[in-house]
């Protein structure tokens, strides 16, 4: 190739080595990989923001409920205020346990001997539902965090194969010809890391928050179960 043509090719390559240029000149398969990873990254950030706001609202609701619960207000009054309303967090545990309590004492033919065990089971099921609600869509973050680099690497391998095929067809191995194709291929790996790194960090952070909230739910369930157990023993003693 004449030196003038080589210089022109190099100039064009330099002109195209931008983020948009690397994407636009990439192979069709590599473009699909890049677009998929970018879409996954956007969805990951949407999950991160949504979960951060959800955990903040949940913590605030828990603090507010605990303040009311331990203020000395009657359990019956608190139950009437919450009954029929959508509840989350500690309020859900309280309403579920009180529902079982009401059905046992107000229903006919119901034994209170095993009421404590039934309340514990209701609390365990409610805790599991709350944890599932908090953990919803976190698995997607873990999946992108683990699979994102490999998906980007697939695009890189495909792009390098295409680049070397083009080099062989053009019979020109100058840096001006080789560099753009390699840069396009490596761009896919960069996007994979761009999607995976925030997903991994956010997953670890959010999962730790879920564990803290779950511990708080379990602690309240134990305390409330103990309160109801004492009242059950008192009623059994009075009935005897």
From TrEMBL:
Please give, as recorded in its UniProt entry, the membrane topology of this protein.
Multi-pass membrane protein
Which is a Pfam family this sequence falls into?
A: MotA_ExbB
InterPro entries, sorted: ExbB/TolQ_transport, MotA_ExbB_proton_chnl, Tol-Pal_TolQ
Q: Where is the MotA/TolQ/ExbB proton channel domain?
A: 114-218
- Which residue ranges run through the membrane? 28-49, 138-161, 181-203
Q: Which UniProt keywords apply?
A: Cell cycle, Cell division, Cell inner membrane, Cell membrane, Membrane, Transmembrane, Transmembrane helix
Its annotated compartments are:
Cell inner membrane; Cell membrane
Query: What is the role of the protein in this entry?
Result: Part of the Tol-Pal system, which plays a role in outer membrane invagination during cell division and is important for maintaining outer membrane integrity.
User: What family is it from?
Assistant: Belongs to the ExbB/TolQ family.
Instruction: Describe, as the record does, how this protein assembles with itself and its partners.
Output: The Tol-Pal system is composed of five core proteins: the inner membrane proteins TolA, TolQ and TolR, the periplasmic protein TolB and the outer membrane protein Pal. They form a network linking the inner and outer membranes and the peptidoglycan layer.
**HAMAP family given in the database record:** TolQ
Protein name as it appears in the record: Tol-Pal system protein TolQ
């Amino acid at each position: 190739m004449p030196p003038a043509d080589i210089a022109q090719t190099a100039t064009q390559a330099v002109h195209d080595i931008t983020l948009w240029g690397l994407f636009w000149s990439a192979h069709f398969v590599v473009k699909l990989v890049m677009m998929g990873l970018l879409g996954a990254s956007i969805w990951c950030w949407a999950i991160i923001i949504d979960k951060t706001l959800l955990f903040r609202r949940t913590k605030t609701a828990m603090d507010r409920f605990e303040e009311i619960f331990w203020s000395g207000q009657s359990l019956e009054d608190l139950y009437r205020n919450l009954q029929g309303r959508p509840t989350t967090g500690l309020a859900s545990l309280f309403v579920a346990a009180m529902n079982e309590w009401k059905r046992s004492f107000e229903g006919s033919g119901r034994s209170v001997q095993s009421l404590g065990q039934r309340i514990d089971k209701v609390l365990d099921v409610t805790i599991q539902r709350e944890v599932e609600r908090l953990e919803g869509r976190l698995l997607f973050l873990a999946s992108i965090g683990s699979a994102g680099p490999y998906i980007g690497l697939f695009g890189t391998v495909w792009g390098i194969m295409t680049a070397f095929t083009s080099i062989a067809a053009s019979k020109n191995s100058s840096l001006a010809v080789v560099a753009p194709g390699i840069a396009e291929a490596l761009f896919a790996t960069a996007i994979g890391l761009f999607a995976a790194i925030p997903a991994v960090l956010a997953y670890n952070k959010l999962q730790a928050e879920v564990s803290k909230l779950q511990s708080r739910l379990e602690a309240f369930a134990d305390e409330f179960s103990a309160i109801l157990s004492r009242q059950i023993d008192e009623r059994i003693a009075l009935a005897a």
